[in-house]
Target: N-acetyltransferase domain-containing protein
Amino acid sequence: MEDDHVLGAAELHERPEFEIPTGEIAFSVERDLQHHGLGRRLFRRIIGHAQALGYIQLKVTTHPGNVAMRRLARSFGAHLRFMDGETTGTVVLSPVEESALPIILTSQSGEQPVREFA
Model:
């Protein structure tokens, strides 16, 4: 966020219809800021959150003409295919060592939680 304007966003949604823990991800980056690494940073961050939540795979869907998103997804190991007018893919996540997960410390006073790493 800059000057109260959202510059990019990433979403992670549960996909309970799959047998293994699966999330679906979506990204949006302001046009003027595309191709400057913001999407990669968002992708990396959303993968970390998904791993911390125990997801084993992530689904990604993009317009077939979105070459940058296809390239970005592939760089994170997505296996992409074209189906029903969309490009869909799956990113299989590596297991995370428990010691690498954040420890959430909460306060009784109602303050925001604090994240620490072990």
